[in-house]
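[Q] Does anyone have a clean structure-token version of this?
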Amino acid sequence: MKPAILFLITVLRRRIVCREGKRPVISGLPDRMITGWYRPPEGGKMDNGNNRENQDSRLIEFGEELLAGHGSGHRILFLSVIGEIEGHELAGERTKTTKYEHLLPLLAKAQDNSGIDGVLLLINTMGGDCSCGLAAAEMIASIEKPVVSLIIGDSHSIGVPLSVASDYTIIAPTATMLIHPVRLSGTVIGAPQTFEYFKLIQDRILNFTAGHSRAKKEELEEMMMRKGVMAKDLGTILVGEEAVKAGLADQVGGISEALAWLHGRIFEEKGK
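[A] Here you go.
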């Protein structure tokens, strides 16, 4: 009998089992024959998520970290929104992105997991997909636990709704927020309906931003259409304290201020 057929019979006779975590393991085969298959760690126990190596891999892959070193015992989920908000279309290979299909499950986990007391969002984004960015902002706003956002670099375009969706927004002294009109890529039909669609998208963004900040819709619309600030675009750039004065941020500060606010709010919530 040919070696290939013998090998196939051998594999079929082996049983395929599922360990904790629902990943398939072929039992009985030598290690060299199951390269690429999942093998449980020594002792047969699955990693429960507290393993340092697993946490590091999640930080690299999703920008996620669980902060639990504070003396208060609070467990804070740290999430980063970095680069471009990638939505329905893939960005280029050389573009750093935050994928909204990764962000939404993490936000759902923050709400549902009783072991998480609050959320810290670190934001440095150039914007991206309007629909998907607004979907993520709606998810952030619906979380019933304390959420603070910290803008450390830029919060541009759809990054503005993401920033104000939290309970409290802190912006670094040199960080910026950019408000500008919506634009579409690809084919644009020269018809009145196209303009109405643009207006609809802008109204969704403006209404959400005004509803979750101290800024008024009329003021936001005026900033969105302002001329003379940027060479190739309409809009307004707000730096640090200017964003606070405009009502889009609550405070100028950094990571210490963000964590201090979050721990204080968690204490208040647990004291009720």
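[Q] Thanks! Anything notable?
[A] The two ends are 75 Å apart (CA to CA).
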